[in-house]
Amino acid sequence: MKKKILYIHHGGAMGGAPKSVFYLIDSIDKSKYDVIIWVMRNGPVVPMFQKLGIPVLISDSKWHQPFHGTTVSGMSFMIFLKNILGYFPTYFFAKKLIKEIQPDVIHLTTTCLFHFGRASKKVSKKTLVVSHVREPLLPNFFGNILLKMNSSSVDKFIAISNNDAAPFVQNGNDVTVINNFVNVGEYVKSESVRKEKRDELGVLDDEILVSYFARVSPSNGTLDLINIAESLFSHKKIKFFIFGFENDTPYAKEVKEKAFSNVFFMPMISNVADYLCASDMLISPFKTAHFSRAIVEAASIGIPSIATNVGSQNELIINNVTGFLYTENNEAIEKILNLSNNKPLRTLLGENARKFAEEKFDAKKNAELTFNCYL
């Protein structure tokens, strides 16, 4: 008899988490599992999940809210207020949903959805509750709320890095570390795609394209990237591209204003692999611990990454083998120049990165490890 799995996803916007959920569900054995996904917000992820041929349920209430307490969301009065106001409507709805669907397994895509775990334990203690740990918890009262609430309502945790797993491991929870993954086989280095995209971007064959794929935010160190680019302004063949730029915050406006002419801003794109194929290296200047999906994708396409030595993302690079880790901006400048002037080294590190991706970030392997947690 097939098991029924209910996935609970916290948002409607596109990003690393929904892509990982998509790859996971796409890999599931439909002869063993019936899959349903409930999405807290309507948005681009809905048609993406619908392509999987599974029932996609969408929240119809603004009162359904995640309970934030991680370093990604941060904490403010408004976030705290939404946590409080949204908890009980979400909890009571979760009880109703779980009673109707009667799943064997509930998979929460983030620790901010523990209300569904608590509701499940009230409906049926037989239901296995699994939660992904995708972001570090805040090191304060609010992070402790997430730790305690999840610990009392979740049976198994799947952390995407050792850094994110640490508080749950220290708390004695059942934790498995499985890195976020991609379908590595779909990431193919193509000279024709490389030429097409570089022509589109106005990058000549003998120029160096350094790419940044992340939100523009203080925690992601975007202004540090601008400072690095400024220091390399005299090296006319090195160009920096910030992909997914939205000029919608004071910080983003400051980034745009301070950028020299060797920095180019691109809107959100869907075909990330094609633009990575056009790139010579990736830079990820995060200032706080966070998993960088872009490093995984860069490794899969076979280009090296240069990244700050902070938690989570420093688990995605073998220093001096698949890329470089750095602490100060001047180190990043040195590494960029080194790779820019040494094509054989770029090729070697890129080949090593691809092998590392096949070993650590492959969808088939990591999905199977995830499904083992349902047993």
Characterization of this structure:
There is one protein chain. The strands form two sheets. Strands 3-2-1-4-5-6-7 form a seven-stranded parallel sheet. It has a six-stranded parallel sheet with strand order 10-9-8-11-12-13, with helices on both faces. The protein folds into two domains: 175 residues, Glycogen Phosphorylase B (Rossmann fold), CATH 3.40.50.2000; 177 residues, 3-Layer(aba) Sandwich (Rossmann fold). It contains 14 helices and 13 strands. It starts with a strand and ends with a helix. By secondary structure, it is of the alpha/beta class. Strand 9, helix 9 and strand 10 form a beta-alpha-beta unit. The radius of gyration is 21 Å and the shape is globular.
- CATH homologous superfamily designation of the largest domain: Glycogen Phosphorylase B
- How do the strands line up in the largest sheet? 3-2-1-4-5-6-7
**CATH 2nd-level architecture of the largest domain:** 3-Layer(aba) Sandwich
Domain module count: 2
Roughly what percent helix?
Answer: 40-55%
Question: Rounded to an integer, what's the Rg over CA atoms?
Answer: 21 Å
Distance between the termini: 14 Å
Compose a concise summary of this entry:
This protein is an alpha/beta fold and 375 residues long.
List the helices and strands and how they pair.
Elements: E1 3-9, H1 16-27, E2 33-39, H2 45-50, E3 56-58, H3 77-101, E4 105-108, H4 114-123, E5 128-133, H5 141-153, E6 156-159, H6 162-170, E7 175-177, H7 191-201, E8 208-213, H8 222-231, E9 238-243, H9 250-258, E10 263-266, H10 272-277, E11 281-284, H11 293-301, E12 305-308, E13 323-326, H12 329-340, H13 343-360, H14 363-372
Parallel strand pairs: 1-2, 1-4, 2-3, 4-5, 5-6, 6-7, 8-9, 8-11, 9-10, 11-12, 12-13
